[in-house]
Amino acid sequence: MKVRAERSSTDSAPEALIQVRDQGPGVPDAELDKIFLPFYRIDDARGRSTGGVGLGLAITEQAIRLHGGSVRASNLPEGGLLLEIRIPLVGSDRRVIGSSGDLKTAPVVSSE
């Protein structure tokens, strides 16, 4: 798994971009949006003892959305899954969060 965090800018506002990549088999394209549904698991053969109950990505999506951000999943051409989380860096008072430079491109962290 590789994780990367960086400060990014869109047309509207600065944002934090967090990318998480794995080297697994990916997700069937027809199921990419479903993986964010509560209790949804791709492989029914996986039980609680081997793979959880299907709440992790649902909780992640809701928390990010409540902070004004977005999360999306896509399959990588070389295999594996890419999750992209985008969180606005503008607070409710319109000040840019992290404007002092404390959120810069982070090194890729690999936990293999």
Helix and strand sequence: EEHHEEE
Largest sheet: 5 strands, antiparallel
Q: What CATH architecture would you give?
A: 2-Layer Sandwich
What is the overall pLDDT average?
Answer: 78
The number of distinct β-strands equals 5
Give the strand order of the largest sheet, numbering strands 1, 2, ... along the chain. 3-4-2-1-5
Low-confidence stretches: 100-112
Cα Rg = 16 Å
Structural class: alpha+beta
The backbone outline, from C-alpha atoms, is globular
Our estimate of the beta-strand percent is 25-35%
Level-1 CATH class name: Alpha Beta
Give the domain tally. Answer: 1
How is the CATH topology named? Answer: Heat Shock Protein 90
Please give the alpha-carbon distance between the first and last residues: 6 Å
In short:
This protein is 13% helix and 29% strand. The protein has two helices and five strands, in the order E-E-H-H-E-E-E.
Any chance you could write out the topology, listing elements then pairs?
Elements: E1 2-9, E2 14-21, H1 48-51, H2 56-66, E3 70-75, E4 81-88, E5 109-110
Antiparallel strand pairs: 1-2, 1-5, 2-4, 3-4
Structure description:
By secondary structure, this protein is of the alpha+beta class. The chain has a single domain, classed as Heat Shock Protein 90. It has helices spanning 48-51, 56-66, and strands at residues 2-9, 14-21, 70-75, 81-88, 109-110.
